[in-house]
Design a protein that fits this description.
The structure is a single chain. The chain folds into two domains: 2-59 and 150-163, no CATH class; 63-149, no CATH class. The protein is 77% helix and 0% strand. The chain contains nine helices and no strands.
């Protein structure tokens, strides 16, 4: 699904906005995040280092807001027609929070740093917020997790795909 969304952005925004802006926009979005941004950068023929930096910055931009304000935002949104969506988000985060409860900050790092479907900085920040973890401690842990996930995805994208001649 993530590759389909990335392809949509690359095909529909390519030529309209810069490659860098596409990578940034893709990286900002939940589900796609840095992983999608790196894949987009590779698909757009960008160099590794600028792709990684832009994807990292795009992925990290919303995280402090999630850590500090999501509980308040959800409380307000529960009083609107968005109630079902908020409850869905909370249930999704709750269903993935067991390992984080058990391992605390190491759990956040692993949850964000291992690029598997349904994991990432957005969900990790949401879970940390729901568990009332200290945002000042959580933010650097999430940043390290994003870097780790980025390294793994970059090796697969820029290394493996390039080595077998895809892209």
């Amino acid at each position: 699904m993530a590759e389909t969304l990335v392809n949509f952005f690359v095909e529909n925004l390519g030529g309209v906005v810069s490659r860098e802006l596409i990578v940034f926009i893709v990286s900002l979005m939940p589900i796609l995040e840095l992983r999608g941004g790196i894949i987009a950068g590779y698909a757009l023929g960008m160099e590794f280092v600028p792709t990684f930096i832009i994807a990292f910055l795009g992925n990290m931009l919303p995280i402090p807001f999630i850590l500090y304000f999501i509980q308040f935002i959800f409380k307000v949104l529960k009083k609107t027609p968005m109630r079902k969506f908020v409850i869905w988000c909370e249930n999704k985060a709750e269903s993935k929070s067991d390992s984080i409860r058990k391992y605390a900050y190491w759990g956040i790092f692993l949850f964000v740093g291992v690029p598997l479907p349904g994991t990432g900085a957005w969900t990790g920040a949401l879970i940390a917020s729901m568990l009332k973890m200290d945002p000042k401690k959580t933010l650097p842990v999430i940043a390290l997790g994003v870097i780790s996930a980025g390294i793994i995805v970059s090796i697969l994208s820029f290394g493996l795909l390039s080595a077998i001649g895809i892209g």
